[in-house]
Amino acid sequence: MSQRNLVITGFVGAGKTTIGRQLAARLGWPFLDFDEEIVRRTGRSIAEIFERDGEEAFRAMEAALCQEWSHPRGWVLATGGGTCISPTNRAALEAGGHLFFLYADLEEIARRLTGAADRPLLRLRPGETLVERLRSLWKAREDAYREIPHWVDTTGRSPDAVVEEILQRYRSLEREGK
Questions:
Q1: E strand segments, the chain
Q2: Torsion angle of C-alpha atoms 116, 43, 61, 65, degrees rounded to 10
Q3: pLDDT tens per residue, range 118-136
Q4: Could you tell me the maximum CA-CA distance found in the chain, to the nearest angstrom?
């Protein structure tokens, strides 16, 4: 039987792709970033998909990926920030792996995302600050995020420290057969 996948999810700007790549390198496992895979499959950027087809079409693509990856394969997966809002997506990913939720202080996330114009859900309304937009998005998603079992704070921490914490927790879950 294959090793359970290690699934990294979390809020926008929390470090999912960076941490996921480093975890895969440390484990010697393949890595798949859901957003990058959707871009590869469609030949369009996430922003283009949102603009031309709408968020619902993008979420359907994410859901299809979650179903594809619902079995243990020994991969590190990084989802988009909205993927695990769906209980169906969470259940599919948990069927094949352990889900880790990355988060950070909203002010730190705002610093990390300064100048990131390619994120459709972070388009500011007139007079709105990035922190206000992040707070609004967090509030809309928080209840769903709270359903994710393993949380890791990335605020003020190096990627190496976050990777080490996740590896220790993942290995412990595997030893316990959870």
A1: 5-10, 31-33, 76-78, 97-103, 150-153
A2: -100
A3: 666 667 678 878 888 889 8
A4: 54
